[in-house]
Amino acid sequence: MTVNIKVWSDYVCPFCLLAEEPLLKAVEGEDVEIEWMPFELRPHPVPTLHPEGEYLQTVWKRAVYPMARRMKVDIKLPDVCPQPYTGTAFEGYQFAKEHGKGTAYTPRVLRAFFQEGLDIGRIDVLTGIAAELGLPAEEFRRALEDGTYRQAHQDALATAEKNLIQSVPTIIVGGTHRIEGVPHPAQLRKAIDAAQAEAAMAENTAAEGAAAEAGGAPADWGATCGIDGC
């Protein structure tokens, strides 16, 4: 039975990019469906951060770069100043999702920002990404300019609020097993196994509604960005 994995992220959170590799390792060979979910750390008009500021410089030196080196992931603090709002990019995600490219869109936007230093708040940059993914570029551009998917994005943010999302990445496996921060592959695999076991048990003994528990997180993982900082 397919296990749904929802991954809440924001395109300006470096830990969301770092979460992709352990996520893909954990799901290799598994019957899962990954769904990237929107969460804005600093929605308009909350001021966004400046890359040259002490806060970001400290967080990157203390946490982001050491984890990236350990994981062998190419990442850099973009010099886009101030950092872009991500609402428009998330409207683009809703377009991509509707056109069957949602799973590819989010990792590509994260790489565009953290590996290529592109300003993902600009519609022309997002349109280039859409075209690269095989989406109809002009239709995509018009949708962002017209706000066609603005309500769909607001509905997605309401889903994040309903699930009490306060930091990213946050991963919910099978609707019940919650992991906050960059997951260790073994931790995520354990949650997948538990969700699969629960689904099988529920299918066979629906009247009893039996469920298993997923294990805890290894102590050296779990870095997140929250509304108050990373």
Automatic annotation (TrEMBL):
Residues 5-192 form the DSBA-like thioredoxin domain. Keywords: Isomerase. This is 2-hydroxychromene-2-carboxylate isomerase. GO terms for molecular function: isomerase activity; oxidoreductase activity. SUPFAM superfamilies: Thioredoxin-like. Pfam families: DSBA. InterPro entries: DSBA-like_thioredoxin_dom, Thioredoxin-like_sf.
